[in-house]
Design goal:
single chain, about 210 residues, alpha/beta, Rossmann fold, 7-stranded mixed sheet, about 40% helix
């Protein structure tokens, strides 16, 4: 059996799923459900492959109070949607608690930074995740802990890490969905193959909850 390491930029993957769902309504699939996400990953394993680890990269969510602590005095006065922010915080916090209980998941956390307000809403950016992904891919590659890596991200900042993996003899696969198939030429150039699955077909494999 070939050992496969997955590298998942959750912010990137989540936004892709959201975009797909706006165009093609995906029934029975909830990206805030950890078991649904685990099922998604299993569908990207090929025959005669097994997980080495699923490295899951994200940042811990910020509560409304944490966001306000990073705002200027002026921005605090016009800051809105505190209830909505706390609702998102609760959902995201539960998801992170659940996802680490799924098989083979190794959580890696970056940080969220507030860069002022945009349309009275906090402008939040994620930091450190790209660096963490690059470091982990390099370590797996140098130590030859896996035969193949599957990457759930299309960020070109990862290209140096992809090069390292290939130089060290690992197969580099980019995960993609049939419903959203844009991958930059630079990413394709520095990978060995694209593993494409249908999100709709994966969703159809998820059992509906019974009452």
């Amino acid at each position: 059996m070939k050992k496969v390491a997955f590298f998942v930029d959750w912010d990137n993957l989540r936004k892709t799923i959201e975009q797909i769902n706006k165009v093609v309504k995906i029934k029975n699939f909830n990206f805030n459900n950890a078991s649904h996400i685990s099922t998604l990953f299993k569908n990207f394993l090929c025959e005669n492959e097994e997980f080495y680890r699923i490295f899951f990269y994200t940042a811990k969510p910020l509560s409304s109070e944490e966001i306000k602590s990073q705002l200027s005095k002026k921005d605090k006065e016009i800051y809105k949607n505190e209830n909505q922010i706390n609702k998102v915080f609760d959902i995201a916090s539960k998801f992170l608690k659940d996802i680490v209980s799924e098989d083979f998941i190794a959580l890696r956390t970056g940080k969220l930074k507030v860069r002022g307000l945009k349309n009275s809403k906090p402008a939040i950016i994620q930091k450190q995740v790209d660096m963490l992904i690059g470091l982990d891919i390099s370590e797996i590659s140098y130590k030859k802990l896996a035969d193949k890596i599957v990457v759930f991200s299309k960020d070109t900042d990862m290209i140096p890490a992809l090069k390292t993996a290939r130089i060290n003899g690992l197969t580099v696969s980019i995960a993609n969905f049939k419903e959203s198939n844009f991958i930059s030429d630079d990413i394709i150039l520095h990978s060995d193959l694209v593993c494409e699955k249908s999100l709709k077909e994966i969703a159809n494999k998820i059992k509906k909850p019974t009452n």
